[in-house]
Each structure stands twice: as C-alpha cells, then as structure tokens.
C-alpha cells in the first residue's frame, strides 16, 4: 500500500484531464441520446430508432464481452488488422453521427443551400453531407497514418456517444441487471483471470497494440513515405493520455507511457445517465438543458448520477495509485452511479416508476414533437 500523499498525483495534468474528459463524455453522451430520441420522434422516423435492451439481451452483453475478450487475448495478432479495418469504418460512421447535428445547425443558422446529390440507403444525400463524410473519412485516415493519441481519443469518444444514442435501457430493473453482471465481469477479468489463464486478460488486451494495415500495404508496395506511417496503433476502444501530458510521447510509444480508461467505463454508466435524463425530461415536460439544474421535485436525477460517476472515477484512480495495480473501474462506478439513483428515487417514492419504466403515451409524443 502506497502512502496517502501519493494521491496528490491525481492533481497532475494527465489524471485530471482524464477524469474531466470521462465525466464530460459520459454526461454529453446522455444528452446526445435524449436529443437523438427527440429527433426521431419529431421526424417520425422509426427506422433509425434506438435498440432498447430487454433482460435477455442485457444478460448476454457480459457473456459476449467475455468471449470477445478471450478471442482478443488468444488471437489478437491474427485478427488485429481486420479488427483495425472494422474499427476504422465504425469510427468514421460514429464521427459523422456526432458532427451532423452541428452541421445541420450551422446550415439553418446561415441559411445555406444544400442541394441533393443522390440517394443513399433510401435516404437523400446532400452536398454538405458528402463534405462531412469526406472530413470524417480524412480524420480516420489521419489516425491510421499517424496513430496520434488525440485522434484516437476523438474517434473513441465518437464511438461512445454513438453507442449510447443507439442502445438504450428501458428501466432501472434492466439497468441494475446489466450493471450488476458487468460489475462481476470487470472484477473477474481484472482480479481473477490470471489464476485461470496465466495472465491478467483484461490488462493484456487493453495494452495490446494492433498492426497497422496501412503500413502493411505501403510496405508491400514499397511506397514512399513509409517511415511516416506508424507500424502499431492504439485502437479507439479507450481514451488515452500521456503521463507526461505536455511533453507528449511519440506515436507507437509504450502503453506504460499512457493513462487509459476503457470506453465501456464511460458508455455503460452513460446508459444509466441517459435513462434517468429521459425520466427527468418526461417529469419536467420541458426541454432539458444542461444549465437547468433544478426540477419541480428538487435536483434532477441526472446530477446525482453524474456526481456519482465523478466520485467513482476518482475512487478508482485513487485505488490504482494506492495499490499500484490495475483496478476494475466498474467496481467503483456501478455503486457510485446506481446507488444514489435508487436511494433518491426511493425517498421520492418514484423508485417503482423508475424500476418498471414507463412507455411515453401520445401526449409525451406530441410534446416531443413540439420541442
């Protein structure tokens, strides 16, 4: 056990930036999920509606995650280039999803004309959308060439926001089931996997770097500028910050040079935040704004969940410093986010409503259409 004064490390730029980024991404993902749902209701476009998990699907997530983790542990070197290619496509799509509302807002504010170019997947495709797609593809290409950690974080954050917007939880009952299973999943793979597999599976997978298919192709074709293309890539399944944040590190540097947090440690709590934010929205019957701090019944649930997430994240990082060993973040994040929501809703006599969930009626839909 390290002395307590070592906790001062949490105030250094790298851990402080990591914590602030994680809280902002988790909070922002919940609001993007709410706005995406309102957008689909407004346009009456149910073809792109989010997937709402049921109990069986929630139980399958830890199982499938465990299978994927083992596959990555044993076969990562064999499938890393294919995985990189798949991730690149998913990252470009997610970045497009995240940026499109801002482009639409700018277009409406300045009255920009945006003629249709063609139809793609039975949807109209405009010139500005084409330029945005090129921008997103160029960003992914820059990441493939440079492997820079800032681009890695940008793409990882986009993936997190897109996931939370498209995969939702119906109520606290399913949420508690999912979080409880992932709580056990995280603890097992971090603390106990070495006993069964001879190595810490979670840490091994998290610190592996993928072979860059762009470098492989450029090398086979003897293209010029090969030395500028990084051989190894950190996949955007986590956010990373150099421990020497202002000094930085060279692309392809050792994993020990970085602090990291898995996307799941942001996306899974963000699903809870999105759930309670939708509940807050339905209760208030107003458009929820980030600066609207109070509801008619006191603080909104979103603020209890966000505060709890921040506390849990600080606790997880502090435990890692004091024990000098990797920590399963969900061990701290699940109680610190789900706990306050359950306690506060029980005190307000709203726990049953949150527990069972409530399908919005036609008045809710009409209200969403007006917002």
Automatic annotation (TrEMBL):
GO terms for biological process: membrane protein proteolysis; signal peptide processing. It is found in: Endomembrane system. GO terms for molecular function: aspartic endopeptidase activity, intramembrane cleaving. The keyword Membrane applies. The chain crosses the membrane at residues 16-37, 58-76, 82-104, 125-144, 150-167, 174-192, 258-280, 301-323. InterPro entries: Peptidase_A22B_SPP, Preselin/SPP. Its main location: membrane. It is a multi-pass membrane protein. GO terms for cellular component: cytoplasmic side of endoplasmic reticulum membrane; Golgi-associated vesicle membrane; lumenal side of endoplasmic reticulum membrane. Keywords: Hydrolase, Membrane, Protease, Transmembrane, Transmembrane helix. Belongs to the peptidase A22B family. This is Signal peptide peptidase-like 1. The lineage of its organism: Eukaryota, Viridiplantae, Streptophyta, Embryophyta, Tracheophyta.
């Amino acid at each position: 056990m390290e002395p307590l004064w070592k906790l001062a490390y949490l105030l250094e730029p790298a851990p402080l930036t990591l914590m602030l980024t994680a809280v902002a991404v988790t909070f922002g993902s919940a609001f993007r999920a709410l706005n995406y749902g309102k957008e689909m209701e407004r346009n009456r476009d149910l073809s792109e509606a989010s997937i709402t998990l049921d109990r069986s699907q929630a139980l399958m997530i830890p199982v499938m995650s465990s299978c994927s983790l083992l596959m990555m542990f044993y076969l990562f070197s064999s499938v890393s280039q294919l995985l990189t290619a798949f991730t690149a496509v998913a990252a470009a799509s997610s970045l497009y999803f995240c940026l499109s509302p801002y482009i639409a807002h700018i277009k409406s504010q300045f009255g920009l004309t945006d003629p249709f170019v063609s139809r793609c997947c039975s949807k109209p495709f405009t010139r500005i959308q084409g330029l945005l797609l090129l921008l997103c593809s160029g960003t992914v290409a820059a990441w493939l060439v440079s492997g820079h950690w800032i681009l890695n974080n940008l793409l990882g954050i986009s993936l997190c926001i897109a996931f939370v917007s498209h995969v939702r939880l119906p109520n606290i009952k399913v949420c508690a089931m999912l979080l409880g299973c992932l709580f056990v999943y995280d603890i097992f793979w971090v603390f106990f996997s070495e006993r069964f597999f001879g190595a810490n599976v979670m840490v091994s997978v998290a610190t592996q770097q993928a072979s860059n298919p762009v470098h492989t192709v450029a090398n086979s074709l003897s293209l010029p500028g090969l030395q500028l293309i990084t051989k190894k890539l950190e996949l955007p399944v986590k956010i990373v910050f150099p421990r020497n944040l202002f000094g930085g590190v060279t692309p392809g540097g050792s994993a020990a040079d970085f602090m990291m947090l898995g996307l799941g440690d942001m996306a899974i709590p963000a699903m809870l935040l999105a759930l309670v934010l939708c509940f807050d929205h339905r209760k208030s019957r107003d458009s929820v704004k980030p600066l609207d701090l109070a509801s008619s019944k006191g603080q909104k649930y979103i603020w209890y969940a966000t505060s709890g997430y921040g506390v849990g994240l600080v606790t997880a990082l502090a435990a890692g410093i004091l024990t000098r060993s990797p920590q399963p973040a969900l061990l701290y994040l699940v109680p610190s986010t789900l706990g306050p929501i359950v306690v506060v809703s029980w005190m307000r006599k709203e726990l049953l409503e949150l527990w069972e969930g409530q399908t919005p009626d036609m008045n809710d839909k009409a209200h969403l259409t007006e917002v």
